[in-house]
Amino acid sequence: xxxxxxxxxxxxxxxxAALVSADGSVDWLCLPRYDSASVFGALLGDDDxxxxxxxxxxxxxxxxxxxxxxxxxxxTRWESAEGVVEVRDFMPIDGGRVDLxxxxxxxxxxxxxxxxxxxRFDYARAxxxxxxxxxxxxxGLLAVAGPDAVLVRGAAFxxxxxxHEATVVVRAxxxxxxxxxxxxxxxxTPGPLDVDGALAQTRSWxxxxxxxxxxxxxxxxxxxxxxxxxxxxxHEDTGGIVAAAxxxxxxxxxxxxxxxxxxxxLRDAALTIEALISHGFLGxxxxxxxxxxxxxxxxxxxxxxxxxxxxxxxxxxxELDSLPGYEGSTPVRIGNGAFTQYxxxxxxxxxxxxxxxxxxxxxxxxxxxxxxxxxxxxxxxxRDHADNGIWEIRGEPHLFTHSRVMIWAAFERGVRAARxxxxxxxxxxxxxxxxxxxxxxxxxxxxxxxxxxVQHYDTTxxxxxxxxxxxxxxxxHDDPRMQGTVAEMERTLMHDGLLHRYRAATGIDGLxxxxxxxxxxxxxxxxxxxxxxxxSDARTLMERLCGIANDVGLLSExxxxxxxxxxGNTPQALSHLALVRAADALSGHHGRAAERT
Length: 597
Fold this sequence. Notes:
Blueprint: E1 9-12, E2 17-20, E3 25-30, E4 38-40, E5 51-56, E6 62-67, E7 74-80, E8 83-90, E9 98-118, H1 121-124, E10 129-134, E11 139-145, E12 148-153, E13 158-160, E14 163-171, E15 175-184, H2 195-210, H3 220-232, E16 264-265, H4 266-277, H5 283-296, E17 306-307, E18 318-320, E19 332-334, H6 346-359, H7 366-382, H8 401-421, H9 427-444, E20 446-447, E21 452-453, H10 468-471, H11 480-492, E22 494-495, E23 498-499, H12 519-531, H13 535-548, E24 558-560, E25 565-567, H14 573-586
Antiparallel strand pairs: 1-2, 2-3, 3-4, 3-5, 5-9, 6-7, 7-8, 8-9, 9-14, 9-15, 10-11, 11-12, 12-15, 13-14, 16-17, 18-19, 20-21, 22-23, 24-25
Helix pairs in contact: 3-14, 4-5, 4-6, 4-14, 6-8, 7-8, 8-9, 12-13, 12-14, 13-14
């Protein structure tokens, strides 16, 4: 049976990620990047689609697990009738190669461990040529398919049909290392990994980063883990920040709402940068700004709302028939068709993030400010266009209120850059456009009869993205209009205490089926409650949401309150950065809203 989404822990080398189930099976791994094809794809099918299981042979053995503090080194403690072992899973960082390490440490007794390995390259479309290499003392299994090669060392695997199996016995005080190394198949085979050195370096790297986290408020453990997730999703070489580690985990189990999130959304990346800046990390912001300059390049008219990890532009969406989907949820998609959409809020998100960087001390360069001026020019040219909105609807475009507010915010940040920092630009024109946007939103985006802001100008519905109006300073959290909007959300969007993004039943998104409460939206509600004086409600909801995190602190995109299970891609950057902001709000720091005009 497919493991619950919440059963998965993530390993990361800040270039890709492996998802390991609570039963010790690596069921998702794309090599060498997050958006590469999978080598292990059982997450979106079954064992036949690729996995690497390592656990005691004794089926009755039980496991507990945790990350080593401040790292992505995962320790799983197995207890069986024969003894106790620990498996320490990690992906080495900064070694100039791509490895996955599974170290077995004997704690007591003598435990037989079974390793089952089924390699399926290219999203299970390529069965590799597999052969034994090495020696009796240092066995290895080499698998090659097209451009990719994988070498597994540390155990003598025996072929059984298209599965390879090995058993090792580990006694108290002994250590046994199993390693998987990816390399381009036309290159020479890499030498054995120095596991002791790699483990020490990886621990040191993660702790050097996590020790710099600045947080003196509540929910510290969850904030630290969330910031670590955001760092793990930031590509070490390019600076691109992916939205999640996975593709096609369903928002609607058994349905078709399955999307590929292994790319860089300007919005999500900008929000991530804000969260990192607010906790002491400015260097990563400079790298992301450089990434942004490279991705957008010379012509803002060609702006996309998302790019590949290195700034690739072609993210054409395709459906795979080689993977049957999580619990039969089809289709499995690679690429994302939303890259062609116009989403009016994106410029505002980028401008807000770059203002936060400027306020934190990151100096503007001639290129970085020229980019922002060009983005404001783009916002002016497209400000009257209907868009697909923050939720990337695949139905008809609309004038979404949240998008309109973010266009207002873009011009407002341009004005502040000119007035407060003396940066050059047509500030009077930006002020005029800002004021025009505000007047339009207050006239058309607010329903005076019902007393709340609306999802878009042609409806009386609300949308959880309206919670961001207070965050960006368009209104105060305690403004009666926001209070009325929150009340309408509580009436129409709340399910068992958690918020949906919008009412899918209206058909606004042009998709079949429904979805579950969206975790980031409920964290936004925590921030709204805290900012409007409903601190007790904020803390109660925050505790509920943190309780939804899995045993190692990870959050997916949505939560099925009926089935009590995670839904959607995981771990989800937007969920984790929203958690950080909510915790900050509870400690009295409101980030964007603190800069309200």
